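Bug: C-alpha coordinate stream looks shifted between consecutive jobs. Job 1:
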Amino acid sequence: MIRWSGHVPAGVVTQEMLAATDWLPTIAGMVGASNLVPKDRPIDGVDASAFMLGKSTTTGRDTFMFFGPDGELMSVKWKIYKTIFRYSEGIDKPIVKAQFPMTYDLSSDPHEDWNLFNTRLDNAWILWPVFRTIGSYETSVKKYRNIKVGEEFTGYK
Protein backbone atom coordinates (compact mmCIF):
# COMPACT_ATOMS: atom_id res chain seq x y z
CA MET A 1 0.00 0.00 0.00
CA ILE A 2 1.14 3.49 -0.70
CA ARG A 3 -0.26 6.85 0.30
CA TRP A 4 0.75 10.34 -0.77
CA SER A 5 -2.11 12.81 -0.57
CA GLY A 6 -2.47 14.97 -3.65
CA HIS A 7 -0.21 12.70 -5.71
CA VAL A 8 -1.31 9.06 -5.42
CA PRO A 9 -4.99 8.41 -6.16
CA ALA A 10 -6.81 7.02 -3.11
CA GLY A 11 -8.84 3.82 -3.01
CA VAL A 12 -7.26 2.10 -6.00
CA VAL A 13 -7.51 -1.70 -5.93
CA THR A 14 -5.56 -3.53 -8.61
CA GLN A 15 -4.31 -6.90 -9.76
CA GLU A 16 -1.16 -5.30 -11.19
CA MET A 17 2.16 -6.88 -10.26
CA LEU A 18 4.85 -5.04 -8.31
CA ALA A 19 7.98 -6.53 -6.75
CA ALA A 20 10.13 -5.36 -3.84
CA THR A 21 12.91 -4.59 -6.35
CA ASP A 22 10.60 -2.08 -8.05
CA TRP A 23 10.53 0.35 -5.12
CA LEU A 24 13.92 1.99 -5.81
CA PRO A 25 13.17 3.10 -9.39
CA THR A 26 9.49 3.74 -8.60
CA ILE A 27 9.99 6.04 -5.63
CA ALA A 28 12.86 7.78 -7.41
CA GLY A 29 10.54 8.37 -10.37
CA MET A 30 7.72 9.60 -8.13
CA VAL A 31 9.88 12.28 -6.52
CA GLY A 32 11.68 13.29 -9.72
CA ALA A 33 14.99 11.70 -8.81
CA SER A 34 15.30 9.00 -11.50
CA ASN A 35 18.69 10.48 -12.37
CA LEU A 36 19.99 9.21 -9.00
CA VAL A 37 19.26 5.55 -9.80
CA PRO A 38 22.62 3.93 -10.70
CA LYS A 39 23.26 3.56 -14.43
CA ASP A 40 26.55 1.63 -14.16
CA ARG A 41 24.81 -1.67 -13.32
CA PRO A 42 21.53 -3.39 -14.09
CA ILE A 43 18.66 -2.52 -11.77
CA ASP A 44 16.18 -5.37 -11.41
CA GLY A 45 13.31 -3.04 -10.59
CA VAL A 46 10.72 -1.55 -12.91
CA ASP A 47 9.81 2.13 -12.58
CA ALA A 48 6.07 2.00 -11.82
CA SER A 49 5.83 5.68 -10.88
CA ALA A 50 3.37 6.48 -13.69
CA PHE A 51 1.07 3.76 -12.34
CA MET A 52 1.41 4.96 -8.75
CA LEU A 53 0.65 8.54 -9.77
CA GLY A 54 -2.47 7.47 -11.71
CA LYS A 55 -0.96 8.22 -15.14
CA SER A 56 -0.88 4.59 -16.34
CA THR A 57 -3.14 1.57 -15.92
CA THR A 58 -0.19 -0.83 -15.68
CA THR A 59 2.97 -1.08 -13.57
CA GLY A 60 5.12 -2.23 -16.47
CA ARG A 61 5.90 -5.54 -14.74
CA ASP A 62 4.31 -8.70 -16.07
CA THR A 63 6.79 -11.30 -14.80
CA PHE A 64 8.42 -12.20 -11.52
CA MET A 65 10.99 -14.90 -10.84
CA PHE A 66 11.13 -16.60 -7.43
CA PHE A 67 14.37 -18.20 -6.26
CA GLY A 68 14.81 -20.73 -3.45
CA PRO A 69 17.11 -20.56 -0.44
CA ASP A 70 19.83 -22.23 -2.53
CA GLY A 71 19.66 -19.43 -5.12
CA GLU A 72 18.14 -21.67 -7.80
CA LEU A 73 14.95 -20.86 -9.68
CA MET A 74 11.74 -22.13 -8.10
CA SER A 75 8.98 -20.55 -10.20
CA VAL A 76 8.05 -17.78 -12.62
CA LYS A 77 4.86 -15.76 -12.53
CA TRP A 78 3.78 -14.32 -15.88
CA LYS A 79 0.63 -12.20 -15.86
CA ILE A 80 -2.06 -14.48 -14.33
CA TYR A 81 -0.05 -17.69 -14.71
CA LYS A 82 2.49 -19.25 -12.37
CA THR A 83 4.87 -21.96 -13.56
CA ILE A 84 6.58 -24.03 -10.87
CA PHE A 85 9.82 -25.88 -11.60
CA ARG A 86 10.71 -26.79 -8.01
CA TYR A 87 8.69 -26.68 -4.82
CA SER A 88 8.75 -27.54 -1.14
CA GLU A 89 5.88 -28.58 1.10
CA GLY A 90 7.38 -26.53 3.95
CA ILE A 91 10.48 -24.70 5.11
CA ASP A 92 11.68 -27.84 6.90
CA LYS A 93 10.95 -30.09 3.91
CA PRO A 94 13.25 -30.87 0.97
CA ILE A 95 12.96 -29.05 -2.35
CA VAL A 96 11.44 -31.26 -5.04
CA LYS A 97 12.05 -30.82 -8.77
CA ALA A 98 8.88 -31.34 -10.79
CA GLN A 99 9.14 -33.87 -13.65
CA PHE A 100 7.36 -31.36 -15.90
CA PRO A 101 6.70 -27.69 -15.09
CA MET A 102 3.44 -27.23 -13.20
CA THR A 103 1.40 -24.26 -14.40
CA TYR A 104 -1.59 -22.64 -12.71
CA ASP A 105 -4.08 -19.94 -13.74
CA LEU A 106 -4.07 -17.80 -10.59
CA SER A 107 -7.11 -15.80 -11.71
CA SER A 108 -9.37 -18.84 -11.38
CA ASP A 109 -7.18 -21.04 -9.13
CA PRO A 110 -5.41 -18.85 -6.53
CA HIS A 111 -4.69 -21.87 -4.30
CA GLU A 112 -2.81 -23.66 -7.12
CA ASP A 113 -4.99 -26.77 -6.98
CA TRP A 114 -5.36 -27.47 -10.73
CA ASN A 115 -2.19 -27.90 -12.77
CA LEU A 116 -3.16 -26.87 -16.32
CA PHE A 117 -0.97 -29.62 -17.79
CA ASN A 118 -2.72 -32.44 -15.93
CA THR A 119 -5.55 -32.48 -18.47
CA ARG A 120 -4.52 -30.33 -21.45
CA LEU A 121 -1.06 -30.16 -22.96
CA ASP A 122 -2.25 -27.53 -25.46
CA ASN A 123 -1.60 -24.99 -22.68
CA ALA A 124 2.11 -25.31 -23.41
CA TRP A 125 2.07 -21.89 -25.13
CA ILE A 126 2.16 -20.43 -21.60
CA LEU A 127 5.74 -21.69 -21.28
CA TRP A 128 7.05 -19.43 -24.09
CA PRO A 129 7.00 -16.15 -22.08
CA VAL A 130 8.28 -18.03 -19.03
CA PHE A 131 11.31 -19.43 -20.88
CA ARG A 132 11.88 -16.05 -22.58
CA THR A 133 12.06 -14.46 -19.10
CA ILE A 134 14.48 -17.12 -17.88
CA GLY A 135 16.64 -16.65 -20.99
CA SER A 136 16.79 -12.87 -20.49
CA TYR A 137 17.78 -13.36 -16.86
CA GLU A 138 20.53 -15.84 -17.75
CA THR A 139 21.89 -13.50 -20.45
CA SER A 140 21.96 -10.65 -17.94
CA VAL A 141 23.79 -12.70 -15.30
CA LYS A 142 26.44 -13.69 -17.86
CA LYS A 143 26.96 -10.05 -18.83
CA TYR A 144 26.63 -8.62 -15.31
CA ARG A 145 27.85 -11.28 -12.90
CA ASN A 146 26.62 -11.18 -9.32
CA ILE A 147 29.00 -9.46 -6.93
CA LYS A 148 30.23 -11.62 -4.05
CA VAL A 149 29.58 -10.45 -0.48
CA GLY A 150 32.45 -8.23 0.65
CA GLU A 151 33.84 -7.86 -2.88
CA GLU A 152 34.65 -4.31 -3.90
CA PHE A 153 32.54 -3.28 -6.89
CA THR A 154 34.65 -1.47 -9.47
CA GLY A 155 32.06 -1.48 -12.21
CA TYR A 156 31.34 -3.63 -15.23
CA LYS A 157 33.51 -3.58 -18.31
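Job 2, same session, no restart:
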Amino acid sequence: MAIGAAAQAAESWTTYNTKPGKGNLIFIEGTSTMHDWRVQGTVIGGKFMAGPGFPTDPAAAKPGKVEAKTENVFIPVRALKSVKADGTPYSESMDDIMYEKLRMEQHRNISFALNEFTLKEVPQGADGAFVFEAKGTLQVGGESKDIVMPVQMKVEGKAITFSGEIAAKMTDFKIEPVSALAGTIKTGDDIKLGMSWVVQTR
Protein backbone atom coordinates (compact mmCIF):
# COMPACT_ATOMS: atom_id res chain seq x y z
CA MET A 1 0.00 0.00 0.00
CA ALA A 2 2.85 2.37 0.86
CA ILE A 3 4.48 1.72 -2.51
CA GLY A 4 1.15 2.33 -4.27
CA ALA A 5 0.63 5.63 -2.43
CA ALA A 6 4.13 6.78 -3.32
CA ALA A 7 3.60 5.91 -6.98
CA GLN A 8 0.29 7.77 -7.03
CA ALA A 9 1.91 10.85 -5.46
CA ALA A 10 4.68 10.80 -8.07
CA GLU A 11 2.14 10.54 -10.87
CA SER A 12 0.35 13.66 -9.63
CA TRP A 13 3.41 15.72 -10.52
CA THR A 14 3.82 16.90 -14.12
CA THR A 15 7.27 17.06 -15.70
CA TYR A 16 8.06 19.84 -18.16
CA ASN A 17 11.27 19.40 -20.14
CA THR A 18 13.21 22.22 -21.74
CA LYS A 19 11.94 22.87 -25.25
CA PRO A 20 15.02 23.53 -27.41
CA GLY A 21 15.04 26.34 -29.91
CA LYS A 22 13.42 29.73 -30.22
CA GLY A 23 12.17 31.31 -27.03
CA ASN A 24 15.01 30.35 -24.68
CA LEU A 25 17.30 33.18 -23.62
CA ILE A 26 19.67 33.95 -20.77
CA PHE A 27 21.44 37.31 -20.57
CA ILE A 28 23.75 39.35 -18.37
CA GLU A 29 23.98 43.13 -18.83
CA GLY A 30 26.34 45.64 -17.26
CA THR A 31 28.19 48.91 -17.67
CA SER A 32 31.77 50.06 -18.16
CA THR A 33 33.66 53.31 -18.53
CA MET A 34 33.79 52.56 -22.27
CA HIS A 35 30.23 51.43 -23.03
CA ASP A 36 27.42 49.22 -21.75
CA TRP A 37 27.84 45.52 -22.44
CA ARG A 38 25.71 42.40 -22.81
CA VAL A 39 26.36 38.67 -23.01
CA GLN A 40 23.66 36.16 -23.87
CA GLY A 41 22.94 32.58 -24.80
CA THR A 42 20.03 30.39 -25.83
CA VAL A 43 20.98 27.06 -24.25
CA ILE A 44 19.14 26.16 -21.04
CA GLY A 45 18.95 22.62 -19.73
CA GLY A 46 16.86 20.96 -17.06
CA LYS A 47 13.27 20.29 -16.01
CA PHE A 48 10.41 22.07 -14.28
CA MET A 49 8.21 19.93 -12.05
CA ALA A 50 4.63 21.06 -11.34
CA GLY A 51 2.89 19.59 -8.31
CA PRO A 52 -0.79 18.82 -7.71
CA GLY A 53 -3.04 21.79 -8.38
CA PHE A 54 -0.36 23.81 -10.17
CA PRO A 55 -2.18 26.80 -11.72
CA THR A 56 -2.45 26.82 -15.52
CA ASP A 57 -6.13 27.84 -15.74
CA PRO A 58 -6.77 31.49 -14.75
CA ALA A 59 -10.38 30.71 -13.83
CA ALA A 60 -9.32 28.19 -11.18
CA ALA A 61 -6.09 29.82 -9.94
CA LYS A 62 -5.76 31.47 -6.54
CA PRO A 63 -2.76 33.42 -5.21
CA GLY A 64 -0.53 31.58 -2.76
CA LYS A 65 2.34 29.13 -2.57
CA VAL A 66 2.27 26.33 -5.13
CA GLU A 67 4.05 23.00 -5.33
CA ALA A 68 6.85 23.26 -7.87
CA LYS A 69 10.52 22.43 -8.20
CA THR A 70 13.30 22.35 -10.75
CA GLU A 71 15.66 19.57 -11.67
CA ASN A 72 19.19 20.09 -13.02
CA VAL A 73 18.59 23.56 -14.48
CA PHE A 74 21.83 24.82 -16.01
CA ILE A 75 23.30 27.23 -18.55
CA PRO A 76 26.63 26.26 -20.16
CA VAL A 77 29.06 29.16 -19.70
CA ARG A 78 30.63 28.38 -23.09
CA ALA A 79 27.24 29.03 -24.74
CA LEU A 80 27.29 32.67 -23.56
CA LYS A 81 28.63 35.20 -26.08
CA SER A 82 29.14 38.95 -26.03
CA VAL A 83 26.81 40.83 -28.39
CA LYS A 84 26.31 44.34 -29.71
CA ALA A 85 23.10 46.32 -29.22
CA ASP A 86 21.68 44.79 -32.42
CA GLY A 87 22.43 41.25 -31.22
CA THR A 88 25.36 40.57 -33.54
CA PRO A 89 28.62 39.12 -32.12
CA TYR A 90 30.82 41.64 -30.33
CA SER A 91 34.26 40.31 -29.48
CA GLU A 92 35.94 36.95 -28.93
CA SER A 93 38.46 38.65 -26.62
CA MET A 94 35.58 39.85 -24.41
CA ASP A 95 34.19 36.31 -24.46
CA ASP A 96 37.55 35.00 -23.20
CA ILE A 97 37.63 37.58 -20.39
CA MET A 98 34.07 36.63 -19.42
CA TYR A 99 34.92 32.91 -19.36
CA GLU A 100 37.91 33.61 -17.13
CA LYS A 101 35.84 35.78 -14.74
CA LEU A 102 33.14 33.10 -14.55
CA ARG A 103 35.85 30.51 -13.74
CA MET A 104 34.66 28.34 -16.61
CA GLU A 105 37.53 25.86 -16.44
CA GLN A 106 36.49 24.87 -12.91
CA HIS A 107 32.73 25.51 -13.20
CA ARG A 108 31.39 24.91 -16.69
CA ASN A 109 27.75 25.66 -15.89
CA ILE A 110 25.65 28.32 -14.22
CA SER A 111 22.93 26.53 -12.26
CA PHE A 112 19.65 27.34 -10.54
CA ALA A 113 17.51 25.45 -8.03
CA LEU A 114 13.97 26.57 -7.20
CA ASN A 115 13.19 26.58 -3.47
CA GLU A 116 9.77 28.26 -3.33
CA PHE A 117 7.20 29.39 -5.91
CA THR A 118 4.34 31.71 -4.97
CA LEU A 119 1.54 32.88 -7.26
CA LYS A 120 1.06 36.63 -6.83
CA GLU A 121 -1.26 37.62 -9.68
CA VAL A 122 -3.69 35.76 -11.96
CA PRO A 123 -3.98 36.77 -15.66
CA GLN A 124 -6.59 39.46 -16.21
CA GLY A 125 -7.07 38.82 -19.93
CA ALA A 126 -6.48 36.28 -22.67
CA ASP A 127 -2.97 37.60 -23.31
CA GLY A 128 -2.12 38.13 -19.65
CA ALA A 129 0.49 36.27 -17.63
CA PHE A 130 0.56 34.55 -14.29
CA VAL A 131 2.92 36.45 -11.99
CA PHE A 132 4.97 34.46 -9.49
CA GLU A 133 7.65 35.15 -6.93
CA ALA A 134 10.44 32.63 -7.30
CA LYS A 135 12.89 32.02 -4.47
CA GLY A 136 15.88 29.92 -5.36
CA THR A 137 19.62 29.40 -5.31
CA LEU A 138 21.73 30.68 -8.21
CA GLN A 139 25.25 29.35 -8.60
CA VAL A 140 27.75 31.28 -10.73
CA GLY A 141 31.43 30.43 -10.91
CA GLY A 142 31.04 28.01 -8.04
CA GLU A 143 29.57 30.65 -5.71
CA SER A 144 25.94 30.32 -4.58
CA LYS A 145 23.49 33.09 -3.72
CA ASP A 146 19.84 32.94 -2.70
CA ILE A 147 17.75 35.16 -4.96
CA VAL A 148 14.16 36.34 -5.27
CA MET A 149 12.90 36.93 -8.81
CA PRO A 150 9.51 38.10 -10.13
CA VAL A 151 8.57 35.59 -12.83
CA GLN A 152 5.90 35.83 -15.49
CA MET A 153 4.40 32.60 -16.81
CA LYS A 154 2.44 32.12 -20.02
CA VAL A 155 0.74 28.86 -20.94
CA GLU A 156 0.24 27.77 -24.54
CA GLY A 157 -1.01 24.22 -24.99
CA LYS A 158 1.55 21.83 -23.53
CA ALA A 159 4.20 24.55 -23.35
CA ILE A 160 4.97 27.05 -20.60
CA THR A 161 7.22 30.09 -20.93
CA PHE A 162 8.83 31.58 -17.82
CA SER A 163 10.50 34.99 -17.99
CA GLY A 164 12.05 37.34 -15.45
CA GLU A 165 15.03 39.46 -14.48
CA ILE A 166 16.79 40.67 -11.35
CA ALA A 167 19.47 43.15 -10.37
CA ALA A 168 22.65 41.73 -8.83
CA LYS A 169 26.32 42.49 -8.36
CA MET A 170 29.38 40.72 -9.71
CA THR A 171 30.84 40.68 -6.22
CA ASP A 172 27.78 38.72 -5.01
CA PHE A 173 29.52 35.79 -6.69
CA LYS A 174 33.07 36.85 -5.77
CA ILE A 175 33.70 38.10 -9.31
CA GLU A 176 35.88 41.17 -9.40
CA PRO A 177 34.85 43.79 -12.00
CA VAL A 178 37.17 43.96 -15.00
CA SER A 179 39.94 46.56 -15.01
CA ALA A 180 42.09 46.94 -18.14
CA LEU A 181 44.63 49.30 -19.73
CA ALA A 182 46.01 50.54 -16.41
CA GLY A 183 42.52 51.09 -15.06
CA THR A 184 41.30 53.31 -17.89
CA ILE A 185 38.61 50.75 -18.73
CA LYS A 186 36.55 49.42 -15.84
CA THR A 187 33.27 47.55 -15.59
CA GLY A 188 30.70 48.42 -12.98
CA ASP A 189 29.80 46.01 -10.20
CA ASP A 190 26.05 46.24 -10.86
CA ILE A 191 24.60 43.79 -13.38
CA LYS A 192 21.18 42.65 -14.60
CA LEU A 193 20.38 38.97 -15.06
CA GLY A 194 17.44 37.89 -17.17
CA MET A 195 15.94 34.79 -18.70
CA SER A 196 13.18 33.37 -20.85
CA TRP A 197 12.74 29.61 -20.51
CA VAL A 198 10.37 27.45 -22.53
CA VAL A 199 9.36 24.02 -21.18
CA GLN A 200 6.76 21.51 -22.29
CA THR A 201 5.22 18.16 -21.44
CA ARG A 202 5.73 15.26 -23.79
